[in-house]
Amino acid sequence: MITLSSFIGQRAIALGTAADTGTVKGVAIEHDRVVAVALSDVVIPASAVRSFEGDVVTYDESAGAFTGSVSAGDPRGARVLDMAGDGHGHLADLSINGDGTIEAILLDTGESVAGRRLRVIGSFAAILADDQLPPPSGPPVG
Amino acid sequence: MSALLHGRELIGRPVVDGATGDDVAEIKDVVFDPGRGEITGFTLRKRGFLGGRLKEVLPIGEVVSIGTDAVMIDGQAALVHRKEAPEDMSTDANSNVLTNRVVTESGRTLGEVKDVIVVGGRSPRVVGFEVAGGAVGDGLVPIGRHSAVSGSALIVPDEYEQRIRADLTGFAAELAGIGEGR
Known about the structure:
The complex is a heterodimer. Chain A is mainly β. Chain A contains one helix and 13 strands, in the order E-H-E-E-E-E-E-E-E-E-E-E-E-E. Chains A and B meet through strand 8, strand 12 and strand 13 of A and strand 2 and strand 6 of B.
């Protein structure tokens, strides 16, 4: 696992040529997953990244540029709202798994929210989905 | 109960699309149907200091929730052109309850409506009025099942004169009491 703060600024190296292609500038996120990574001069799909957990970002440059509609950026500092319209502070950092899924959203209040609650990060706010209660467990009643 | 707030607190509150995380508008005014005593929607303006009025409005049925920080929708299709808005969102003179006189059934004037009191959350609605300038002083009057509202006056039961509260905390307790009394 890596934090977004550690990920942004890492050197990026293309696997095919071993060329240093700059640094990580931002990420694009859809639901609880990083879908693209913005490097110095190009935005690449997250599927091209070998792992999010190294000291440098190695990626397959033959995958081409990211063509999705989600814009890439640095979401740190974004407001965090739930679907009730209530604020939860600001996004301080993200914990990112090796496969690019968001494990947790770290808030400037010191609290954290499960990454699976993340709906989207937009120009105004990161939106959390409603809390889903876990399915009932234990022995049947009656 | 969700938080109580003055209608004026909604003015300028961002309308946020939960599908994109973008702020698509802000509240310009609350549209209230006096006959039914219900919020029917909101007029909108563009975000920002110099934001102009938008042609789109937000019907109450498209609101996901009114929260402490934003009015939430789920997709920009929630905003409809005012020409295509539900009929109960018309904003003629009779739908403006501000400055209406609040009068008891016995004919005692309690004051003029200065604002509506709204309960937010998933089922937003008007639950009372802020009144001022009357013989009993400024305060908050509940809107109950016996209240009648026109384009010029709000009629409330006589006993509501005793139920005027000075602040939202006391008003919330009063509303709870009315609910229990039903």
